Amino acid sequence: MDTTYRNYHNNVCVSTLNDWDGGPSSTFEDLLQGLMFLFHSPNPDDPLTSNITSDDDEFLRNVRISIEGGVIEDFDHLPFEMNYGYKRYLAEQEKQQNEEEEEEDSRR
Of 5, 26, 9, which is closest to residue 60 (Cα–Cα)? Predict the structure, then answer.
């Protein structure tokens, strides 16, 4: 399970994910129990990131900014590069377009 998706979201905190290391003391059942508890009894008052806005319109604007590769104010402290996946997608699209253009040029 990859819980490191790098995008703006108001993930609800569940301590099982912080403590689960996949070693002998942490079982897959522990992880599933924690996730089932989260789905059954979410606690939106205990967010993983405390500075996510509770204003729905602002939240949606920030999600759009994040998806489009922008930087959201007050999020420069995060320990990862914002929008990594989106930036990688854009780079792959650009590479593919360049390869197609080169192939087209070579046919001429």
Answer: 9
Which residue is listed with tokens 């900014």?
65
Q: In the chain, where are the structural domains located?
A: 15-107
Tokens of 104: 């087209």
Please report which residue ranges of 1-108 form alpha helices under DSSP H: 15-19, 28-40, 56-67, 84-107
CA distances to 35, 43, 81 from 39, rounded to whole Å, are 6, 9, 28
pLDDT in tens, 31-81: 788 778 877 877 766 666 665 667 778 878 877 877 776 777 766 555 456
Q: Token pair for residue 84?
A: 């990594």
- Alpha-carbon distance values, 38 to 29, 33, 91, 108 (Å): 14, 9, 35, 59
Candidates 7, 9, 10; CA nearest to 82 is 7
Is the four-CA dihedral 80, 22, 40, 14 of positive or negative sign? negative
